[in-house]
Specification:
The complex is a heterodimer of chains A (114) and B (111). By secondary structure, chain A is mostly beta strands. Chain A contains no helices and 11 strands. Helices cover 0% and strands 49% of the residues of chain A. In chain A, the strands form 2 sheets. In chain A, strands 2, 4, 5, 6, 9, 10 and 11 form a 7-stranded mixed beta sheet that branches. Chain A has a 4-stranded antiparallel beta sheet with strand order 1-3-8-7, with no helix packed on it. The termini of chain A are far apart. With 111 residues, chain B is mainly beta. In chain B, 0% of the residues lie in helices and 58% in strands. In chain B, the strands form 2 sheets. In chain B, strands 2, 4, 5, 9, 10 and 11 form a 6-stranded mixed beta sheet that branches. Chain B is globular, with a radius of gyration of 13 Å. The chains are: A mainly beta (114), B mainly beta (111). At the A-B interface, strand 5 and strand 10 of A face strand 4, strand 5 and strand 9 of B.
Chain lengths: 114, 111
């Protein structure tokens, strides 16, 4: 059972480039999330999804886009990368929304924008 | 907006000493979760507390949820080097249903 799988693990982007962070889960969870983690700042919610075809903004959505065409996949798109987007990105999924059940996190993507 | 504050931000202890991290919310929580993140790793769920005044134990770890459901603590007895990492609380707002993470407490254990 793979859980939540994120790719790539590491990426370096130049300012203005674009990329997609991939996330897939095999637990049949309806709820999926993208967080970014900056040193000493905890986890900030970027976008979340309550099921296929439904997405919504979190605390820090600017500069990002998401889609949810299937239950399994929840890719995060960065358009026109900026140095402020240098961070560690975690995808997560859960069986119920909010904190009703544990969040299962992927291994993370470490992104540097220079 | 709702905030979940966690203190201290960092803690260095000698192996065998106890450790406590505190989590405080500006609003009432319907539940609180705790996660552990090893250096270079991802957050891993430890436990969830739901009831006012609830206390749960996992071996050397003791978790408490305050009577007013606005604060929580994690206490580790006799720390070991395997306890190194960052501990996060995450509370669900009773008002909004949204899950908010604290900033985390990073624990270093000197052998």
């Amino acid at each position: 059972n793979a859980g939540v799988t994120q790719t790539p693990k590491f990426r370096i982007l130049k300012i203005g480039q674009s990329m997609t962070l991939q996330c897939t889960q095999d637990m049949n969870h309806n709820y999926m999330y993208w967080y970014r983690q900056d040193p000493g700042m905890g986890l900030k919610l970027i976008y979340y999804s309550v099921g296929a075809g439904i997405t919504d903004k979190g605390e820090v959505p600017n500069g990002y886009n998401v889609s949810r065409s299937t239950t399994e996949d929840f890719p995060l798109r960065l358009e026109l990368a900026a140095p402020s987007q240098t961070s560690v990105y975690f995808c997560a999924s859960s069986f119920t929304p909010g904190g009703g059940s544990p969040l299962h996190f992927g291994n993370g993507t470490r992104l540097t924008v220079t | 907006g709702q905030q979940v504050m966690q203190i201290p931000q960092y803690q260095h202890v000698q192996e065998g000493e106890d450790f406590t991290t505190y989590c405080n919310s500006s609003t009432t929580l319907s539940n609180i979760q705790w996660y552990k993140q090893r250096p270079g790793g991802h957050p891993v769920f430890l436990i969830q507390l739901v009831k006012s005044g609830e206390v749960k134990k996992q071996k050397r770890l003791t978790f408490q949820f305050g009577e007013a459901k606005k604060n929580s603590s994690l206490h580790i007895t006799a720390t070991q080097t395997t306890d190194v990492g960052t501990y996060f609380c995450a509370g669900t707002s009773s008002n909004t249903g949204k899950l908010i993470f604290g900033q985390g407490t990073t624990l270093q254990v000197k052998p």
